[in-house]
Design goal:
Number of helices: 3
Order of helices and strands: EEEEHEHHEE
Structural class: alpha+beta
Length: 135
């Protein structure tokens, strides 16, 4: 696990367009639909081990402006392919949503919006499901 990864999250193949972000597919949430939504992601302090470590944590975006700008709201899909298709479509407008927001690695970060695909019985409201521990 790298400094900024969450456990049980795998990145799909990156989109070929310049500046495109990876699609995050989190299958550790259980069984059910594949949910696509915007999450406000920032770094959370994990602990003081070896000089301190941080992990990515996110909360479900609930501001209607975010989804209005992205052109689609949160949705559930039966197949991961359909979910990733929707996520890629939403992601094309992600730069407009994050305009003016510092990167999450900066000290003045207020978070960055990301499009995530998560598998769960109900729409996940945050990630990770449990706080990671240092190994």
């Amino acid at each position: 696990m790298t400094l900024y990864e969450t456990p049980a999250t795998r990145r799909m193949e990156p989109d070929a367009r310049p500046g495109a972000h990876d699609i995050f597919l989190d299958e550790d949430q259980g069984f059910g639909l594949y949910w696509v939504a915007a999450f406000l992601v920032d770094l959370s302090y994990g602990g003081s081990e070896e000089g301190g470590w941080w992990y990515q944590a996110g909360i479900l975006a609930i501001d209607p402006w975010v989804y209005e700008t992205l052109g689609a709201g949160p949705a559930g899909f039966c197949s991961p392919d359909a979910a990733v298709s929707r996520a890629r479509l939403m992601r094309t407008k992600l730069p407009a949503v994050n305009q003016g927001r510092p990167e999450i690695s900066q000290t003045n970060s207020v978070g960055q919006y990301e499009i995530r695909v998560m598998r769960a019985q109900i729409m996940p409201t945050h990630f990770p499901k449990t706080r990671p521990h240092y190994e």
